[in-house]
Amino acid sequence: MSDLEQIGELTQFFQSSEQAHFARSWTVDDVERLRNPGPTEEYPLSNRQARKLRKALDSNSRNGSTSFTYGAADPIMAHEMGEAGFDTLYVSGANATLADVPTFDCGGDLADYTYDTLPRKVKQLVQNQLHWARVDKVRTHIGNLKGSKKGIDRLVPIIADGDSGHGNSTATMKMVKLFLDAGVAAIHLDDLLSGEKNFSAGSLTHVVVPVSEHIRRLSAAKLQLDICGSHVVLVGRTDSESASRITSTIDARDRPFILGRTNVDIPSLNQFLQGSKTTGVSRLQEEGEWELQAYLKTLDEAVKGSCTPDEFKEWTSKSVNLNVSDALLLATKMNMSVIWDAEGCRNERGWYRYNGGIEAAISRSIAYAAHSDMVWSCAPGYKRDSVVRYEKEVHRAVPGKWLGYNWSFGDFSKDTDDNIAKLVRDVGSLGYVWQFNPQAGFYAQGIAMHDFAKAVYKDHMVPYVRSIQDGEKKEVSVIDWYEEAGDLVDYMTDIVSLNP
Ligand SMILES: C[C@](O)(C(=O)O)[C@H](CC(=O)O)C(=O)O
Ligand SMILES: [Mg+2]
């Protein structure tokens, strides 16, 4: 295809209903220039999966339905989920890093692994899906496919964890290419500071980057998708609901959530912490003690408290698009004497104090909407009020935007089964098209292995024999894998052995 033909096609692609909402800072000519000479680097399998996913999410959006899934940590889990009827699979960074990283060093979910970790996992699962799709074809041909296995779509679309893009724009672009090569259908990128994901002291240590920085990440991913002519679904995730730190105050959109101290008669936080030997939760307590005396406020609250209502009105209208330092300077120029200091709230790593919560998540998700197909605020726990609010506000600003929801951190142990069963349907009916529980399968696998390991240790072959009998009754795939995969292998070796 000639360059001009490619550009013609790209223009159509950019203007299609699926793509037109993206705010691109590049043109079709830019993309054409960045493409390989000769054939475009395309990933047909990933595109096919992405289109399938788009169809499912679009149908959910129209019908008020939802796709629920959980993290598929290995090929057997993914296979069983496909047989059970799931229409999406999640591939979780947390699952992968706890059990399977290319550098062999497993650990907690710190997103400190190499950027090929999740693409490799996706590739493993997709290759397994393809394998079983071929087995089914051959078994259908030779009449061996069981009734219960007929009509199963082995290629369930995969939504994968891209964390914070693993570094700069080009690292994100390289990671996206690996995902495409693996056959992914969707990728999520979060607005945490790369390399600083931290669970050691709870959610209070979450550090976000400015809105503009995350938009840059999403744009890097989108540019790579355009270069590859990709339909992959880009999910703009925010962790601002549980963040308490931000790397920079540069973006005016972050102004409502940046806190400064209004008491400057105490040492700055950095001075206060100097020489401190506390870590983790104790460090947070120490910071909390300082905050009790610092009288933290947003700049707008501080200005409001130091001028007349008319002055505040004037300042508010003149400072609409100003970040905290420009807006503070404006207040000084307007002869207001505002005492507000964000610098003094920086901790020893230099991060500013951020007032995370559902308001921040809503505002960020709206900002990310023009740069993603779906937005998702990573919920630190289920709160129905927040779920309702988020949907209402995001959809008021961006009607019909696909919304995601995670069921990761809640405790529902005291709820009745009926109530628990209603949760996902309820959130679906509120307008969330995709929901997932990253850890459910991983935990279930661990619990099953816990029981099995103890039983086999004690009774040797008995639990094995009984569990196989039970599995056979239920036609659990893995028990027949030798035989089923054997049909594929036999078919191949038989045809090469025939006399031509
Ligand atoms: C969803 C998530 O990105 C994951 O990797 O599964 C994690 C979940 C977790 O660490 O429990 C996250 O929420 O960051
Ligand atoms: Mg993750």
From TrEMBL:
MF term (GO), any: methylisocitrate lyase activity
Note accompanying the cofactor annotation: Can also use Mn(2+) ion.
Residue numbers binding Mg(2+): 161
Keywords on record: Lyase, Magnesium, Metal-binding
Secretion signal span: none
SUPFAM superfamilies: Phosphoenolpyruvate/pyruvate domain
GO biological process: carboxylic acid metabolic process
NCBIfam families per record: isocit_lyase
Family: Belongs to the isocitrate lyase/PEP mutase superfamily. Isocitrate lyase family.
Protein name listed in UniProt: Isocitrate lyase
